[in-house]
């Protein structure tokens, strides 16, 4: 990699893995929030 040429290969791979994991967790959390927003609790009928 040209950005940090002195880094060991396992540090580069670990950084990529952590980055991808953070993106995946963020997407999972966003989908949970969107799904939760669509599921409103049952409300009593309006009088």
Write the layout of secondary structure elements.
Blueprint: H1 9-38
Strand content: under 5%
Radius of gyration: 21 Å
Q: Sheet with the most strands? A: none
Shape: rod-shaped
Secondary-structure class: mainly alpha
The tally of beta strands, per DSSP, is 0
Low-confidence stretches at least 5 residues in length (pLDDT < 50)?
none
Q: Mean pLDDT, as a whole number?
A: 83
Distance between the termini: 67 Å
How many alpha or pi helices?
Answer: 1
Helix coverage percent:
55-70%
Order of helices and strands: H
List the keywords.
single chain; 47 residues; mainly alpha; 1 helix; rod-shaped
Walk me through the structure:
Keywords: Membrane, Transmembrane, Transmembrane helix. The chain crosses the membrane at residues 12-30. By secondary structure, the protein is mostly helical. It has one helix spanning 9-38.
Entry summary:
By secondary structure, this protein is mostly helical.
